[in-house]
Input
Amino acid sequence: MNIENAQVQMRKGILEFCILHIISRGEVYASDMLDELTSARIMVVEGTLYPLLTRLKNAGLLDYKWVESSSGPPRKYYVLTDSGKQFLDAMQETWLDLSDSVHTVIRRTAEVLENPSTKTS
Output
């Protein structure tokens, strides 16, 4: 099994959630999303981001508006729709539950490794 592939799959699994969170703060330009995701060490390229944004828009979770730019062509800024906000709220609840569950398993593993006599089947 390839660890890099497993890591990529884990990151892909939370990419949509992270993108919706970034957009939930207000109007955002795609390159700003890329910058934030990169600084958070969630590596993503334009070829991944733009199709995902299109899919989220087609699903009614986000919208965009064109804004004129003094330094080039107009820019597309994304915002969440009401449906997108509800979807993000549901994803947030799922993430918190899942994160808590994973941390429970990790803590239990650490306990067992520190004290093997506490191991239970």
In short: The mean pLDDT is 92. The chain has one domain: 3-118.
